[in-house]
From TrEMBL:
<dbReference type="InterPro" id="IPR003953">
    <property type="entry name" value="FAD-dep_OxRdtase_2_FAD-bd"/>
</dbReference>
<dbReference type="GO" id="GO:0009055">
    <property type="term" value="F:electron transfer activity"/>
</dbReference>
<dbReference type="GO" id="GO:0000104">
    <property type="term" value="F:succinate dehydrogenase activity"/>
</dbReference>
<feature type="active site" description="Proton acceptor">
    <location>
        <position position="191"/>
    </location>
</feature>
<keyword id="KW-0560">Oxidoreductase</keyword>
<dbReference type="Pfam" id="PF00890">
    <property type="entry name" value="FAD_binding_2"/>
</dbReference>
<dbReference type="InterPro" id="IPR036188">
    <property type="entry name" value="FAD/NAD-bd_sf"/>
</dbReference>
<dbReference type="GO" id="GO:0050660">
    <property type="term" value="F:flavin adenine dinucleotide binding"/>
</dbReference>
<keyword id="KW-0285">Flavoprotein</keyword>
<dbReference type="GO" id="GO:0009061">
    <property type="term" value="P:anaerobic respiration"/>
</dbReference>
<feature type="domain" description="FAD-dependent oxidoreductase 2 FAD-binding">
    <location>
        <begin position="3"/>
        <end position="189"/>
    </location>
</feature>
<dbReference type="InterPro" id="IPR030664">
    <property type="entry name" value="SdhA/FrdA/AprA"/>
</dbReference>
<dbReference type="GO" id="GO:0005886">
    <property type="term" value="C:plasma membrane"/>
</dbReference>
<protein>
    <submittedName>
        <fullName>FAD-binding protein</fullName>
    </submittedName>
</protein>
Amino acid sequence: ILELEHMGLPFSRLDDGRIYQRPFGGQSKNFGGEQAARTAAAADRTGHALLHTLYQQNLKNHTTIFSEWYALDLVKNQDGAVVGCTALCIETGEVVYFKARATVLATGGAGRIYQSTTNAHINTGDGVGMAIRAGVPMQDMEMWQFHPTGIAGAGVLVTEGCRGEGGYLLNKHGERFMERYAPNAKDLAGRD
């Protein structure tokens, strides 16, 4: 948080100047104790502010960005070390090898493998498939993260901040039900 603040992210502040923090699901003190408030925000535009702050850092550091490219497969050398990837230029159809000293997989999720999800349409699991094809060991593949609050049947996400600010979940009978599953955290329980 402090690093992002030093980059210029305009976090919301308390009257005394400290960064405003609020509770979100799954945050507790002492591993399951009372609810913790440790989510920093930039008003109701945190994602927007974060993207702009990080984009400015990319401009400042002259980062080359390959927009509208699609990673296809990791490339390994004879010793089995990953040395880059192949990628497809969506505009031209050209396939290119990107050589790399280090490769970081940050490909998003795979929530679109489920019929009902609030995940973005691009979260199709292609990055996971790329890693599996390269022999990267997988663990706990049944544990997909879902955003816990949405409008049933519509795939519309309701920000988690609604629950952090006192909103609560109801079942189809209009009853609050989370206390049965998480007596302490209730509607702010973790997603598992």
